[in-house]
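question for whoever is on the cluster today: can someone run the full assembly for these? two chains, 672 residues total. i dont have access anymore since they changed the login thing
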Amino acid sequence: MALLEVENLQTHFRAPDGINRAVDGVNFHVNAGETVAIVGESGCGKSVTAMSILRLIPEPPGKIAGSIRFNGRDLLKCSDREMRAIRGNEISMIFQEPMTSLNPVLTVGRQIGETLRLHQGMSAQQAEARAVEMLKLVGIPEPERRVREYPHQLSGGMRQRVMIAIALACNPKLLIADEPTTALDVTIQAQILDLMRDLKRTVGAAIVIITHDLGVVAEVAERVIVMYAGRKVEEASVEKLFRNPRHPYTQGLLGSMPKLGSSLTGEETRLQEIPGLVPSLKRKLEGCVFASRCSHTTDLCRKVAPALEEKADGHIAACHYAMKEAVAA
Amino acid sequence: MSQPILEVNDLKKHFPIRAGFFGGVTGHVYAVDGVSFSIEKGETLSLVGESGCGKSTVGKAILRLFDITDGQVVLDGTRIDDMPAGTLRPMRRRMQVVFQDPFSSLNPRMRVRDILAEPIRNFGLAKDAADIERRVAELMDRVRLPRDAVNRWPHEFSGGQRQRICIARALAADPDLIICDEAVSALDVSVKAQIVNLLQDLQKELGLAMLFISHDLAIVEHMTHRVAVMYLGKIVEVAPKRQLFAAPKHPYTEALLSAVPVPEPGAARERIILKGDVPSPIRPPKGCRFHTRCPYAFDRCKQDEPQLRQTEDGHFAACHLHDLPAAENPLAGARGAAVIAHH
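^ ran it for u. tokens below:
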């Protein structure tokens, strides 16, 4: 059984001018110890999916439907009290903005210790000792001194390390990282990605990483889910997705990214564009969600929404025209 | 060679830090500390570096959005950094800017027509109202927006379309030089490609010179002619793009290239992960500013500040390693291919 099973997740928001279908029928699973990336552009519903798992969506105006089974338990049926016991303990989250996600008036030691005292009933001394250990684990020099410092005394990269320390303090089974490196500089991003890879080996938690950066996906993920306009459009192992993307949207995304080293081949190329704009999520979309921007669109695409089909072993795509390989029975 | 459109000589910008009740100056932020480069007509020079390295300050100093501490800015042979405001005005027309955030850089209370007409009117570029209207329509065509969109308000457009309006506004003054300060950084991948292509097309069509300030090395490599890498207020390396990406001559450039995640799973590449953070520009390290994080630093780097020197044709780097015999210089070979993934 998978650690996390998300079935037909629908997160809708009531707005004055209609219902915003931010996430509209998404299925996926995460196995224990696995790293899964959810990738897509702004507004595709990737962050809302992550927030829905932890039920961090304010209801109303939001409304989450479907089922989210974690270790066999449906999180959508849990009481608020049960959810609080899960958040930060069995499932924890790292947010994008390390500057605003830390409390400026508490020492970082207090903030790491808070989850430990709450979930694991540690005393203040035990929690501080463990906080020092956690800071050491995430590679902060002089942890005994840093543990008494306040967030403003740390740089952006160090704050993100503290966020990771908080998230990992209770040995979660699942870690959700929402754009964990987007706000950081490249050299610092490289440090944090390196740290996440190391920690995965030592801690063994499953990771769901939400990002718009395909480079980051290629570096850390094992399996990738591509989202577009609130739906999953493609899913595959990271090698398969990058070698052989099957959905036209994924192909477009990969083609529109300039590759480092492009000048070394000597040929001047033009970036591939995806014409048009993401459709509004306020209208019920008919047919394929990508039909308005796809270069292969036919009448079939405009009328009938393609189902997610297994096009090759473990490679799923929602496109009428994506090539299908003979799947070994 | 003809005269460069822009020359920057030993530019310095130090921001005073004021503290205490009387606001006494207690120190300086050495945001830009001696930067020199030039841009030819029709050329794109990219300024890359991490946040706080001073790249945006250089852009703003050229535009004279503030006065500089020291140095010279020369636009097409005329020194503009000490020009009085009155004589500067016609020069301002010749350099325009596109900022990062298309949401805050357009006035929400002006229609697109008025946004584009303002620079035309301000610099007296049109004969009459009909001429303005004609120029505005041309600008809309240039940036591939429908002509009838001139009656709409900024909030009716998406981020990518707004950035097109910002570009059209920059073109309205008929400039020789456009400074793009992270102009595509806030956009989504697919929209980013549209704007990058547009900027490249416009440069070819209009023969514009461009200063492209960015932290995104893949985009820079795609669209620039030459690259200048900044670290803590100084340029550490300048080179034509192919030379820089194939064989970086400064350890910082090398580390920067190796840190960019590439969309190629399992790519065989050498990784250089820099330790620690960028030091504060209030108290930059003595000697080479990069020595605190440099994997190759030796004793001389802590004392002696390296100067930008030519290592090969058109390729300048500020690093003591190039004084060592080639056998001991880790940057002597073609390092780019090793730290960038193979294709």
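summary bc i know u wont read the tokens: Chain B touches chain A through 47 residues (CB under 8 Å). Chain B has a mean pLDDT of 90.
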